[in-house]
Amino acid sequence: FLGLPWELLNNGGDAFLTSQLAGVSRRLSPGPLDDFSGRLPTDQLNILLLLPPSGEGSGSIATEALTALESLPVDAELDCLRPSSPAKLQEQLAGKPGHYHLVHFDGFTIDGQGMCMEDGSGGVTSLDAAALAQTLTGAQTPVVLVNASSSSALNDVMSFAAGLAENGVPQVVVAPLPIAGSGRVLFCENLFKGLSGGTPVAQTVATIRQAMKDHPQRPSATGPLESWDWTLPMVFESQNYSPEAIVVEEAAAPVPGMPQPEQETSGTDLPRGGPYGLIGRHAEMLDLERRFRQAPVVLLSGDVGIGKSELALGLASWLRKTGGRSGGVFYSAFEVGAGLERVLHEIGTSLAGLDFADLRNEDRRTWVVDYLKENPALLVFDSLQNLAGFPAGAPGLLEDSEMADLDSFIKEVAEGGQTWTLLVSRRDKEPWLTVPHGSYRLGGLAGFDRIVFGTRLLEEAGADPMRLGPEYLEILELVDGHPLAMEIALPLLKDVPASVLVGELRSELEHHQPGADEEGRPPFLTVVMDHAFSRMSHRGRTHLPFLSMFRSRVMMDILTHITGEQAYKSVMGEGLGYGATRTLLRTARAGGFLEPITPSVYQIHPSLPWFFGRSLYRQFSQGAIQQLEQEVVRVYADTADYFMETLYENQDAGTTAILAEEGNITQALALSIEAGQWENAQLLVQPLAQVFRMQKRYPELRRLRRQLLETTGATAEEAERTGGIQLWLYLLGTEASECIETKEFDRADALNRQLLEYLSSKEDGETDPRTAAVFHQMGQVAQYRWQLEEAQELYSQSLAIIEDGEDQEPVADDYYGLGLVCQYRRRYTEAKEWFSKSLEIHQRVDDAEEMVKDYRSLGLCSQYKFEYDEAASWYQRAREILEENRDEENAVLVYHS
Question: Are 484 and 305 in contact (CB under 8 A)?
Fold first, then answer.
């Protein structure tokens, strides 16, 4: 609308004539227009996106456009041109003529020479309107969208858009100045809704203008202001074009028994970011993506709380959704003690399923490296500073040899030249990292990004924009646009004038002396935290530091359980009930100290445990803190025991709960070992070990066992001296069982011999059920080795110890083992007797999974005896259970029996 006379805009009072029209467009000639003759697909909306050479001041709407396309009720596809050069554009459009409904030039600078684009070799070139129009019209492109950068002169943009129309582009939608805030969302949502719905372009743009006019609030340095940006969108027409509506095709119902096509993997799941997501950072994301063209490995560094993880996740999501990395996007965060083995497992199982974990260690690595060398993927390794320990002097998560393995892996992958690796760390240099890499230092939010985020925080806090004054900008400058510092400082403006707050912060910053443990932490962040903390209530300042006992997240139910106990009251001076605990967490959330995941679960930013811990040690003695630690161990041991029960009742729900709390369980495990609480340590390690085993994360599980055995003692004699003998028995026993699963029989033999030697030396060892368990495992090894007589003897020895005991499930295991031995020796009648005894127990305890195994074995023995009717009866019972539990994979096996 820019340049239109006021008389056309104004209709008297608060009305605007043009906003009430069905559509307004600009034409370069008064005569009738020709019709667009191209034929485009109607099964999905196809968009081609081009990005500018630099994101600085671009006013990009690419993120909003992608979100709008994803929300459409019809299929839509966005191709992002990389690099966005004239030659690449011509190649792309020539390869897909009549394919794209719209080509979007997002945030480009336009001057008198034309549009500034990449030249394909790292430089910049200008493309005039005539040359660009020739490329577009040659591919039968009906609509072009141009939203110009802030550095573009208005007249140049308008002349360029007119030039496109003059040279044959049917419809040119142009926004000559950047659109801010929610205006971008409204623009994109209405544009793509109109195009996909078959609405004429001029009418669609009229709808955009009306929506922006109805919601005029935009971020500014003084809070939300009413904007006239609804006058910006306009249309140039050179041909009539009425888009055909995209048709929603209903998927045909799957035919029973017909194999369904496998979905292509896009990599590992990306974790949930902070509550605000990625605000701004378009220039940084664009720059970071282009760094990978110079080096396949880039180290992204920055101070704590600066937004490194958010940027990394934003880039990963962007590349995944725009097809920038067709080989997949894989994210790993090094927050617990797991190194390359977890990376390999997550990548391999996401690509090849759980069977990948059955490969040998060296084969797993080779498989993953070969895939990443051949396919363009993105690896994101977050929280890298934890590997060697952070700050300097702190214990690291990995040993030197493990860090060398990770370094070697990154180097191997980089040599393939296909996969990009983004390393995220608080350090500018990692001492163990030898692979050549680029570096990118992330600073705070700048320019309009800073204003947008600040406005969002002020709105949530309920601060009055009229009270801000010019000092508000001084606060943003004081914290250098640091996102976490802004989250904590700006909510204070609800109660404190900006002029007072900035003066107090400056004064405190002048007197602040950073400690040796504040590496990677800007002084203003500590000052802002201290100041906000000092303004909390006495109860908040007393109880909030206890959150230093948690890692990454805190569940309100668990916290309430702890704060209501006498041990907590004796240290803190008072307990907290459910209501008080909820108020504490909500107050911390409002002050920027916590981030909500759900109404009862809160995320703890990685920078805060240090701050909370410092506050805790300033308030309480070492002895009092140890009391609190013991209470955390006790409650988490109870929680871990509950998780184990949940795991047996509902495997999926139990696994999700355990992995979500992995950080806190690991924290409690470390505290229990430090205090020599071996029984609690065993309770805490059991759910982790069970999930690792279910997911076949054997290398991680063995690493965890190795670390625990270094504390309990590697031998029975050492474990008895430390008092950790029961944990030692559990660790060796479960590893022996695991070795049988992985066919490592020599290792299983060695472990079983150690266990049997210790148990036999005890007074009641001959009647100990654990001795029976060892005999059973030894019988399994003998059976796999086809030493059937020895296997039968070992199972019988186990059975002699436990057959008359209360726990009948291990008895059923021995019965089943003896049945298998008889089956292998072709003594089918005797085998059926053993299987029947096993079935009887499993029916009593209602173990459906084991009953299926018994039914199938009974069916097989009957089949071998030519008792086909009886065999069919057993198989039928197994099939009924499997179908009832929707286990189609095993049901198919029964069908084929």
Answer: yes
- Record the pTM: 0.87
Sign of the alpha-carbon torsion through 338, 343, 349, 355: negative
Those residues whose C-beta lies under 8 Å from the C-beta of residue 428, and which sit 6 or more positions away, are 299, 301, 439, 441
For 721-759, the pLDDT digits (tens) are 999 999 999 999 999 999 999 899 999 999 999 999 999
Give the helix, strand, coil percentages of the chain, each rounded to 5.
55, 10, 35
Ordered by start, the domain boundaries in the chain are 6-240, 282-441, 444-510
Distance CA 350, CA 589 (A): 35
Could you say which architecture CATH assigns to the domain 6-240? 3-Layer(aba) Sandwich (3.40)
pLDDT tens digits along 558-577: 999 999 999 999 999 999 99
Q: Is the pLDDT of residue 10 over 60?
A: no
Does 6-240 match 282-441 in CATH topology? yes
Which amino acid, 295? A
Which has the closest alpha carbon to 713: 667, 754, 671?
A: 754
Place of tokens 């205090």: 675
Peptide bond into 391 cis (omega under 30): yes
Rg (CA), the chain: 33
Residue-level length of the chain: 897
Using CB atoms within 10 A of its CB, is residue 886 exposed (0-12), middle (13-18) or buried (19+)?
exposed
pLDDT digits (tens, 9 = 90+) for 472-529: 999 999 999 999 999 999 999 999 999 999 999 999 999 999 888 888 899 999 999 9
Alpha-carbon distance of 687 to 662, in angstroms, equals 9
CATH number of this structure's domain 282-441: 3.40.50.300
Per-residue pLDDT reduced to its tens digit, 680-719: 999 999 999 999 999 999 888 999 999 999 999 999 999 9
Check: CB of residue 65 under 8 Å from CB of residue 49: yes
Measured at the alpha carbon of residue 485, what is the angle toward residues 483 and 491, in degrees to the nearest 5? 100
Largest CA distance in the chain: 108
List the structure tokens of 362.
Answer: 């060296």
- How many CB atoms are located within 10 Å of the residue 466 CB? 8
DSSP symbols for 812-879: HHHHHHHHHHHHHTT-HHHHHHHHHHHHHHHHHHT-HHHHHHHHHHHHHHHHHTT-HHHHHHHHHHHH
Cα–Cα distance, 562 to 628 (Å, whole number)? 9
Sole residue written with tokens 């955390």 = 632
The pLDDT-based confidence of 5 (bands split at 50, 70, 90) is low
Q: How many CB atoms lie within 10 A of CB 662?
A: 18
Helix (H/G/I), strand (E/B), else coil: 275: coil
Instruction: Calculate the CA 41 to chain-centre distance.
Output: 35
> How many whole angstroms separate alpha carbon 289 and alpha carbon 283?
10
CA distance linking residue 749 with residue 850, whole number of Å: 26
Q: How far is CA 703 from CA 131, 698, 730, in A?
A: 62, 9, 15
Residue burial 256-276, b: 16+ Cβ < 10 Å; e: rest: eeeeeeeeeebbbebeebbee
